[in-house]
């Protein structure tokens, strides 16, 4: 049964081809006409109930099949009309008699009007919309791809979600490109229907007169009924398909079906119904205007508008009651803080906190339709999969002292980042290869410091065509928050988080945890080692390797900085994957003289080792580094400095205060299969 269903379309198309060649009896032709009408109704209703065009992506192919089906029915009906004295079945006769009403001229006029409405109004409009949509969809593809890449790199979406979005963009472009060509089938079908109708009528009259036995008036009457009936029984389904074509190419972005959208959007403006009813009443006062119909319709509009308006007010009151509540008044501030436990709430500090101005509240508040929390949850999952650490919850607060469009990110109660967002605008980032300019409000993207513009919604597609990366306001906010969390991840790793990580490892390797913690290293020192890794962007997902390395070296090495270096070397595959590209890694190296200077400047005391380097030498080193970075800016997106294992940690601390974005790796942290390409060298 399943195989039959899977091959039913192929069998149906073969049957359509056979219908063009093999004559059909009247009964079978009636059945095929009814199937054609039913199929067109199903297609029309399907386009009304889908939320987006890609839900009915088979429509362009279906358009070709239905057009071919109608043409084969036209050929079969023409064969019967011309060979069976105008008798081509009950469906054609019924349509012809019903429309003609005894007047052949009226029937032909009605038929011509239906064909012209379909051809000039509906089909022509659908064809133009499909053509324009296909062109703009293809032009906007690069910008949409860049926006997906930006969301993926910032951790807002997962790799699976990015792949799904890219696939949808490609499918959307293919769909509208196919629709652009498929609308030509409907146009050609309209032209052919007029030609076939003319052939049926003229050919039928000629055959009827040659065969004899009937008067000219009877021949015209017979073939008028069959001709108009045949035309209508074909064109009414064609009109439904054309309407479905127009609906599917004019569908705007929506979260509901067309029925729900129309109902909800008309209901959202009840005052419009009331005004329309008043206008109808005024029109009804015009002399000789049909008053019963006009006043009845006006009363219906006014009644519906009043009920909707009254219902909206009740909803507002209910919503206010939900917010304010009808319970007993809250205790006074003095009474509340008499309980000493309530005072402790004042000194609690949230790990991550975001304060927003009042204009940004709808953007982050779920009650106002914002999906900020859902996006944070997606980032938390992505960050956990990538870095092996779970980001704590983000506390949201509104702050009346901030500018309306401003937001502040706080870590443990202190501000670490700030930015501004225009809610009704989109942020257009300049990737450096624009083909045109759009007007907007100049700004700097808060997360990466890229020159950008705030543009209005109507300029979004144009900006994508010009090559801008266009990001919505919520994505700008999430990107900035995610970058702040990545930079300060080492501060967010608490003892409680560490305990949960260890408990998670115990499920698979309890013996390892018991051996290392606290026998070899305390939880406090383990937290420092993990923090050192996170500070430099090294994932701590492979906790078993980290613990095994600490277990190997921790007995003889007590310095957490040195233990961190050993752990980094054990994670060389992870480090290589993170910073290499295409099997090679591009770096800036240190000369032997520079490494000797650093080694000679290392001092040790009871608290550990530190670097004591001459300020003049330090200034020369930093100057050389900045010069190399500037020179290689086009080849190195992220500056990577390669050193010997002993020097790496000290040189990294030296750069922290001058160039914290630089990545410092040692030779022992790069996998042997990776090719090292030295683009520059730092020397004094």
UniProtKB/TrEMBL annotation:
GO cellular component: plasma membrane
NCBIfam families: FlhA
Transmembrane segments: 7-25, 31-50, 62-82, 88-121, 191-212, 232-249, 270-286
Membrane topology field: Multi-pass membrane protein
Family stated for the protein in its record: Belongs to the FHIPEP (flagella/HR/invasion proteins export pore) family.
Tagged with keyword Transit peptide: no
Annotated compartments: Cell membrane
GO biological process: bacterial-type flagellum assembly; protein secretion
Protein name from the UniProt record: Flagellar biosynthesis protein FlhA
InterPro entries: FHIPEP_1 (IPR042194), FHIPEP_3 (IPR042193), FHIPEP_4 (IPR042196), FlhA (IPR006301), T3SS_FHIPEP (IPR001712)
Keywords recorded for this protein, A-Z: Bacterial flagellum biogenesis, Bacterial flagellum protein export, Cell membrane, Cell projection, Cilium, Flagellum, Membrane, Protein transport, Transmembrane, Transmembrane helix, Transport
Source taxon at top rank: Bacteria
Function of the protein: Required for formation of the rod structure of the flagellar apparatus. Together with FliI and FliH, may constitute the export apparatus of flagellin.
Keyword Zinc: no
Main location: membrane
């Amino acid at each position: 049964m399943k195989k039959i269903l899977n091959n039913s379309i192929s069998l149906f198309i073969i049957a359509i081809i056979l219908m063009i060649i093999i004559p059909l009896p009247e009964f079978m032709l009636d059945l095929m006409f009814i199937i054609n009408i039913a199929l067109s109704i199903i297609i029309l209703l399907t386009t009304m109930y889908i939320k987006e065009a890609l839900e009915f992506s088979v429509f362009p192919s279906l358009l070709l099949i239905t057009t071919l089906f109608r043409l084969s029915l036209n050929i079969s009906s023409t064969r019967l009309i011309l060979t069976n004295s105008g008798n081509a079945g009950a469906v054609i006769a019924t349509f012809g008699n019903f429309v003609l009403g005894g007047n052949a001229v009226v029937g032909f006029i009605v038929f011509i009007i239906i064909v012209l409405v379909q051809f000039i109004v509906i089909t022509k409009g659908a064809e133009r919309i499909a053509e324009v949509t296909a062109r703009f969809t293809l032009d906007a593809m690069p910008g949409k791809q860049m926006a997906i890449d930006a969301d993926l790199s910032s951790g807002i979406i997962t790799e699976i979600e990015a792949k799904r979005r890219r696939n949808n963009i490609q499918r959307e472009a293919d769909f509208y490109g196919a629709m652009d060509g498929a609308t030509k089938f409907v146009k050609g079908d309209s032209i052919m229907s007029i030609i076939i109708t003319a052939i049926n009528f003229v050919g039928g009259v000629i055959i009827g007169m040659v065969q004899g036995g009937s008067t000219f008036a009877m021949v015209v009457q017979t073939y008028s009924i069959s001709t108009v009936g045949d035309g209508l029984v074909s064109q009414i389904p064609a009109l439904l398909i054309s309407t479905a074509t127009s609906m599917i190419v004019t569908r705007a972005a929506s979260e509901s079906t067309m029925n729900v959208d129309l109902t909800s959007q008309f209901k959202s403006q009840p005052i419009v119904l009331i005004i329309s009813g008043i206008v109808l009443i005024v029109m009804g006062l015009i002399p000789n205007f049909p008053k019963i119909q006009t006043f009845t319709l006006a009363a219906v509009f006014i009644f519906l508008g009043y009920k909707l308006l009254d219902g909206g007010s009740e909803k507002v009151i209910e919503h206010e009651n939900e917010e304010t509540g009808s319970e007993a008044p809250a205790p006074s501030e003095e009474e509340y803080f008499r309980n000493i436990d309530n005072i402790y709430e004042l000194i609690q500090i949230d790990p991550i906190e975001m304060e927003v101005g009042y204009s940004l509240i709808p953007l982050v508040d779920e009650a106002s339709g914002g999906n900020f929390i859902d996006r944070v949850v997606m980032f938390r999952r992505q960050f956990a999969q990538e870095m092996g650490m779970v980001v704590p919850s983000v506390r949201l607060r509104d702050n009346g002292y901030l500018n309306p469009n401003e937001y502040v990110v706080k870590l443990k109660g202190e501000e670490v980042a700030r930015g501004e967002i225009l809610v009704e605008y989109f942020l257009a980032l300049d990737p450096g290869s624009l083909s045109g300019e759009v007007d907007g409000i100049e700004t700097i993207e808060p997360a990466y410091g890229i020159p950008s513009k705030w543009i209005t919604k109507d300029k979004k597609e144009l900006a994508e065509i010009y090559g801008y990366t266009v990001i919505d306001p919520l994505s700008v906010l999430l990107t900035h928050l995610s970058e702040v969390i990545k930079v300060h991840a080492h501060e967010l790793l608490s003892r409680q988080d560490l305990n949960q990580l260890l408990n998670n490892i115990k499920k698979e390797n309890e013996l390892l945890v018991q051996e290392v913690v606290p026998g070899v290293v305390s939880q406090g020192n383990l937290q420092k080692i993990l923090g050192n890794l996170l500070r430099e962007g090294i994932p701590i997902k492979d906790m078993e390797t980290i613990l095994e390395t600490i277990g190997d070296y921790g007995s003889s090495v007590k310095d957490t900085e040195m233990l961190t270096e050993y752990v980094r070397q054990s994670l060389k595959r992870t480090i290589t994957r993170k910073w290499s590209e295409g099997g090679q890694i591009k770096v800036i190296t240190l000369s032997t003289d520079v490494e000797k200077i650093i080694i000679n400047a290392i001092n040790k005391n009871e608290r550990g080792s530190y670097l004591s380097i001459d300020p003049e030498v330090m200034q020369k080193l930093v100057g050389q580094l900045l010069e190399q970075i500037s020179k290689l800016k086009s080849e190195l997106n992220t500056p990577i400095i390669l050193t010997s294992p002993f020097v790496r940690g000290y040189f990294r601390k030296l750069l922290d205060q001058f160039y914290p974005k630089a990545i410092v790796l040692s030779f022992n942290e790069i996998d042997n299969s990776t090719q090292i390409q030295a683009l520059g060298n730092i020397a004094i």
